[in-house]
Design brief:
There is one protein chain. By secondary structure, this protein is of the alpha/beta class. It has 4 domains: 142 residues, Malic enzyme, N-terminal domain (Rossmann fold), CATH 3.40.50; 236 residues, 3-Layer(aba) Sandwich (Rossmann fold), CATH 3.40.50; 131 residues, 3-Layer(aba) Sandwich (Rossmann fold); 146 residues, Isocitrate/Isopropylmalate dehydrogenase-like (Rossmann fold, 3-Layer(aba) Sandwich), CATH 3.40.50.10750. It has 32 helices and 21 strands. The strands form 4 sheets. A 6-stranded mixed sheet has the order 7-6-5-8-9-10. A 6-stranded mixed sheet has the order 18-17-19-16-15-20, with helices on both faces. A 5-stranded parallel sheet has the order 13-12-11-14-21, sandwiched between helices. The longest helix is centred in the N-terminal third of the chain and has 20 residues. The relative contact order is 0.06. GO terms for molecular function: acyltransferase activity; malic enzyme activity; metal ion binding; NAD binding; oxidoreductase activity, acting on the CH-OH group of donors, NAD or NADP as acceptor. This is NADP-dependent malic enzyme. Its cofactor is Mn(2+); Mg(2+).
Length: 752
């Protein structure tokens, strides 16, 4: 099937469409229903009657946007009517929810006259926290938005105008910097004079472009004052009329710095590109075919040509999804009365700044592992980059507060954490640890310091103030990689091949001489990053260590076990994963180290895992897992976790509830614990799960991760004498940064 048929099938699959409504409160009992509806619902209704603003506290209004259209200018299909526009409006709702956790009702109005759209939309103000106008033809869209902004006290935003303008503006900020030109002196030619073109021109003025340097062309040619005098132009086009000779697009493009196409495909030739000023910027936005193809424009001349399009298969995609979800997110969270120019400029500047930062591995993988680094082919973040939310929404919220558009004050220093919580429990949990790490950063050895991911992680760790990284590896090679990546920082580097390591070799010899290691062998081993890093941590020249990215787990774990060893109160190390679900966090152990632990080992693993949970501000409730429930099966295998639970309950150092042996569903389903096994020491479901052996632990956490939809953080190594963590081969930069934060907090607690 072709794309059209695939799309038809996609939308037709049961249930039809792309959205549904789900409940956010329990509705399982008669009491739940009496609270949700009659008679309990009368209380919040009465309160809202007394104070309309309480609707934001008692209802979904504050997170609800109305996507409203009359279907008069849908995509490239034109005026197809309200009913036919519904799949597009549903799609808009999907993007709001996917990227910014904003709920949407799509409203298709079967009206042709602007006055009718205005009246209907204004009447729905009690329902929504904001209005997103969509696919309404020009010039009707200008009148509708202007009137609604004047008459409504919630944000009204026509995305076809301002969304496009904001993303183009962000791209132009960076493109101008790359080609060494100032916004204030840029000459700009715009092809097209519809809603998006006029809004883009106005927004460029807000960013600093001189209005007199903007030449706009419609289908009849350059918009001039003579055409205004002749009565050919509406008031919106007339704002950009120039006192110059009439001509066509080719005339307008000659010697211009920037071309912005918001018209039709194929109207710009390579010759027209060659007529532009040196190092031109070309944003050819017509879809599906741009005004000039990406490669055509790039190859038209030999100097730097920065090209953007609306297509995802070329670099520098100008995509509105980079803007509207996050602009509304910031506006809704401060209960803004409008989305003003200051908020739009803040969004564009935030996007431009983000494109200059190192790109997460997950984003790179989503785009086929192509290099993504600030430059002519990367001037805008990618739509799937999760950081866009954390940069744009706070910038918009702050601008709303500073411009007096906000009705609610928020703590901007903690706002990012609230946003992270919206996108998943793992982000919320890691933020707890990373914030602790920043209060007292420690020195963390990155044993595989020549690896690109380790270098990028070192940069992020430094930039965020989480730790002071020490990279082990070839100094020149590390600096060369940093230059290639465009990372501007000055990390501490220890080069095992050339630096003086005698003291470390001597210490390694002292530690291992009765384990068969000679002095000569110690001198050789210390040139290995895993041994060198381990000795540095053991001697106190570093506080923690990360390794394992380039090694199999057992071989990476061996040197720290031999050199650092387990803690004074520990006989065993163990690997723990934190698994985060939408509303639940659990810690599972052992998933990486001990193949067949005995009862004493299981008890020790349970104690250390509970201590780890508290570093994440999680109060532990531990379950020793088995295929038996409290003696329902009695054999050597089930006695082992049963005895481990007894040992933990008898241990005066353990001050959290533990029980077992029990089956996995018993451990995590509160109704089972409260019903069938109400005698259990766990009054709530367990959040620390200790598996009976490595096989079960590894299988269990991977099933939960892959089929249960959990995010996994780890493995975190517990039981070591000093903080050491062994990464999994293939881990991403964010995993390294997260484990560095865990290691720093571990080191802080040991210091305390």
């Amino acid at each position: 099937m072709g794309l059209d048929d695939d799309a038809r099938e996609y939308h037709r699959q049961d249930p039809p469409g792309k959205i549904e409504i789900s409940t956010t409160k329990p509705t399982n009992t008669q009491r739940d229903l009496s609270l949700a509806y009659s008679p309990g619902v009368a209380a919040p209704c009465s309160d809202i009657h007394e104070d309309r603003n309480l609707a934001y506290d008692y209802t979904a209004k504050g997170n609800l946007v109305g996507v409203i259209s009359n279907g008069s200018a849908v995509l490239g299909l034109g005026d197809i009517g309200a009913q036919a526009s519904k799949p597009v409006m549903e799609g808009k709702g999907v993007l709001f929810k996917r990227f910014a956790d904003i709920d949407v009702f799509d409203i298709e109005l079967d009206f042709d006259e602007p006055a009718d759209v205005i009246t209907a939309t204004k009447a729905m103000e009690p329902t929504f926290g904001g209005i997103n106008l969509e696919d309404i033809k020009a010039p009707d869209c200008f009148e509708i938005e202007e009137r609604l902004r004047e008459e409504m006290s919630i944000p009204v935003f026509h995305d076809d105008q301002h969304g496009t303008a904001i993303i183009i503006g962000a791209g132009l900020v960076n493109a101008a910097d790359i080609v060494g030109k100032d916004l204030e002196t840029l000459s700009v030619t715009i092809s097209g004079a519809g809603a998006s073109a006029i809004a883009t021109a106005e927004f460029l003025v807000s960013l600093g472009v001189d209005r007199g340097n903007i030449t706009m062309c419609d289908s009849s040619g350059i918009i001039t004052t003579d055409r205004v005098d002749a009565g050919e132009l509406n008031a919106y086009k007339a704002r950009f009329a120039q006192d110059r000779a009439e001509g066509g697009l080719a005339d307008a493009m000659e010697s211009t710095d920037v071309f912005i196409g918001l018209s039709v495909g194929g109207i710009v030739s390579p010759e027209m590109v060659r007529s532009m000023a040196e190092n031109p910027v070309i944003f050819a936005m017509a879809n599906p075919e741009p005004e000039i193809g990406y490669h055509e424009a790039k190859n038209a001349r030999d100097d730097t040509v920065v090209v953007g399009t609306g297509r995802s298969d070329y670099p520098n995609q100008v995509n509105n999804v980079l803007g509207f979800p996050f602009i509304f997110r910031g506006a809704l969270d401060v209960r803004a009365t409008e989305i003003n120019e200051e908020m739009k400029v803040a969004a564009a500047r935030a996007l431009a700044d983000l494109a200059r930062k190192d790109v997460p591995d997950a984003v790179v993988k989503a785009y086929g592992d192509q290099p993504l680094q600030f430059g002519p082919e990367y001037i805008l973040p990618k739509p799937v980059d999760p950081r866009v939310m954390f940069e744009v929404a706070p910038a918009v919220a702050q601008a709303a507060i500073e411009s007096d558009a906000a009705r609610k004050s928020i703590d901007l220093s903690t706002y990012r954490e609230e946003l992270e919580a919206r996108l998943g429990k793992s982000r919320e949990m890691m933020r707890v640890v990373l914030n602790k790490a920043k209060t007292d950063p420690k020195r963390v050895v990155l044993a595989e310091g020549t690896d690109e991911k380790m270098i990028r992680a070192a940069y992020q760790i430094t930039d965020q103030g989480i730790a002071h990284p020490i990279l082990l590896g070839d100094r020149e090679g590390i600096w060369e990689t940093m230059d290639d990546l465009g990372l501007d920082f000055d990390p501490e580097i220890v080069d095992p091949a050339s630096d003086e390591l005698d003291s470390y070799a001597e210490r390694l010899y002292e530690l291992r001489k009765r384990k068969g290691v000679t002095r000569r062998e110690a001198n050789e081993l210390v040139r290995d990053g895993n041994y060198l890093g381990s000795v540095m941590v053991e001697m106190g020249d570093a506080d923690a260590m990360l390794t394992g990215l380039m090694h199999h787990y057992p071989s990476a774990l061996r040197p720290p076990l031999q050199v650092v060893g387990t803690a004074a109160d520990a006989e065993y190390a163990a690997g723990v994963y934190m698994l985060t679900f939408k509303n639940r966090v659990i810690f599972v152990a052992d998933a990486t180290v001990n193949q067949d632990p005995g009862a004493a080992e299981l008890a020790e693993i349970g104690r250390h895992t509970g201590e780890l949970a508290r570093r994440f501000n999680v109060e532990p409730r531990a379950a020793m897992l088995s295929y038996s429930n409290f003696g329902s099966v009695d054999n050597a295998g089930t006695r082992k976790p049963r005895r481990a639970a007894e040992m933990l309950r008898e241990d005066p150092a353990v001050d959290f509830p533990v029980d077992g042996e029990m089956q996995a569903d018993t451990a995590v389903v509160e109704d089972i614990l409260e019903g069938t096994y109400d005698f259990a020491d766990l009054e709530e479901s367990a959040n620390v799960l200790i598996f009976p052996n490595l096989e079960a632990g590894n299988i269990g956490y991977k099933l939960l991760q892959r089929l249960g939809g959990a995010d996994a953080i780890g493995p975190m190594l517990v039981g070591m004498d000093k903080p050491v963590h062994v990464l999994q081969r293939g881990d991403e930069v964010k995993d390294i940064v997260n484990l560095a934060g865990v290691a720093v907090v571990d080191a802080q607690e040991r210091d305390g």
